[in-house]
Design a protein that fits this description.
It is a single chain. By secondary structure, this protein is an alpha+beta fold. It is 14% helix and 26% strand. It contains 1 helix and 25 strands.
């Protein structure tokens, strides 16, 4: 009996020990599996981190969505960046690649340079244009950087959807859009007064990215009338040529004597720079300085209103009709007239937009024969202004 109990106890102990060993092995296997999973996860994360480091960590390249400084809302070297080994790279999103700089699409020399008119708040003083980054484009000589754009400065930009305006003693300028253009009319308008200098404006030399080429300090820009009123006159005191300084030519003495609507063209002395045409420039007449009795070309009849009606224009010193003049004008007979106005004649009328119309002027005496022996002459007055005599007027008998 005792022996049987010892056998049972020994068997039970052996069985328990084996069970304990199996449990231990299972726990160890589970622990090893968990450790393997953690290790695999860490390896995966490390690989992803390494790829991200390659993507983000290269400070010498500009990459969409990556780190780095951006000026005026764009990444530097957006069309490709140069490396010290002579290659260039361009990355956008998940695509990347490198090409030899001699075959890079950004190597366009300076053919993209163009002129742009800057009026009012568009001028560089109003911080319209953004300066470029060094080496924005390659020179045609293969030097790898654009010497003209290597010192471009940065500034703020005006939204194209906004509008700005400015005024000066000689006129006003307004901008409905700041989009630049080369060889085409811009959306900017300018207003000035005949015989007075236009508000100061500028013509900028821009590269193909629309940034002012601030390193240009040698070329000159010349203006000319592209379109305007018939017989338009540019005042002889005007300065129509200016030297470019920091990529900008400034014009503060452009004087147009003839009222009307103009556009100007700007041409750079560097033939590789595309010319530009300005937006609309409206030149208003100046203040009234003289009265003019318009010629009467048809002989009149005694006692009947002269037809066509006699007109008197109020003009500025350059002969532009002063459209703001709405004062009274009086018509008078020159000395030595053979007769007088009839009693029903209307000799004083109010000018309308600078023109006084006399449609009820009649004379009571015919001029003697032969015709032109002793004609009538008319002159007009307005306040302190007095016109010269009109042409000779013949009045025939009824």
């Amino acid at each position: 009996m005792v022996n049987d109990f010892r056998k049972y106890w020994w068997w039970l102990r052996t069985l328990t020990g084996q069970t304990s060993k199996r449990s231990t092995r299972r726990r160890r296997f589970a622990a090893h599996a968990a450790a393997a999973e953690v290790c695999e996860s860490r390896v995966l994360l490390s690989a992803q981190g390494f790829a991200a480091a390659i993507w983000h960590g290269n400070a010498n390249e500009s990459q969409s969505g990556g780190w780095g400084d951006s000026g005026c809302g764009s990444n530097s070297g957006g069309s490709g960046s140069s490396r010290s080994d002579g290659s260039s790279s361009s990355q956008n999103g998940s695509s990347s690649g490198t090409t030899d700089s001699s075959n890079s699409s950004s190597a366009t020399s300076t053919t993209g340079d163009h002129l742009v008119f800057l009026f009012g708040s568009e001028t560089t003083g109003g911080s319209r244009h953004c300066g470029g980054d060094s080496g924005d484009s390659d020179r045609s000589d293969g030097s790898g950087s654009d010497a003209r754009s290597s010192s471009e400065s940065s500034c703020s930009s005006t939204s194209s959807s906004g509008s700005t305006s400015s005024t000066s003693s000689t006129g006003t300028s307004s901008t409905s859009s700041t989009g630049s253009s080369s060889g085409t009319t811009t959306s900017t308008s300018e207003t000035a007064t005949a015989g007075q200098a236009l508000p100061t404006f500028q013509v900028a030399v821009e590269n193909q990215s629309g940034k002012v080429v601030t390193s240009d300090n040698s070329s000159t820009v010349t203006l000319a009338v592209q379109s305007g009123p018939a017989n338009a006159v540019v005042d002889s005191k005007s300065t129509m040529t200016a030297t470019v300084k920091n990529g900008v030519a400034t014009f503060n003495n452009v004087i147009l004597d003839t009222a009307g609507t103009y556009t100007l063209t700007a041409t750079d002395s560097d033939t590789g720079v595309t010319s530009a045409v300005s937006g609309t420039i409206t030149v208003n007449p100046g203040a009234v300085t003289q009265l003019v009795v318009e010629p009467v070309t048809t002989p009149g009849t005694v006692g009947q209103a002269i037809t066509p009606a006699v007109t008197v224009t109020a003009e500025d010193e350059f002969g532009n009709v002063a459209t703001t003049d709405n004062d009274s004008v009086t018509l008078n007979l020159g000395s030595g007239a053979p007769g007088n106005f009839t009693l029903g004649s209307t000799t004083t009328v109010v000018a309308v937009n600078g023109v006084a119309t006399f449609d009820n002027i009649a004379l009571d005496t015919a001029t003697p024969l032969p015709a032109g022996t002793n004609p009538y002459f008319l002159f007009a007055t307005q306040g302190s202004l007095t016109s010269s005599n009109s042409n000779a007027i013949e009045i025939q008998t009824a």
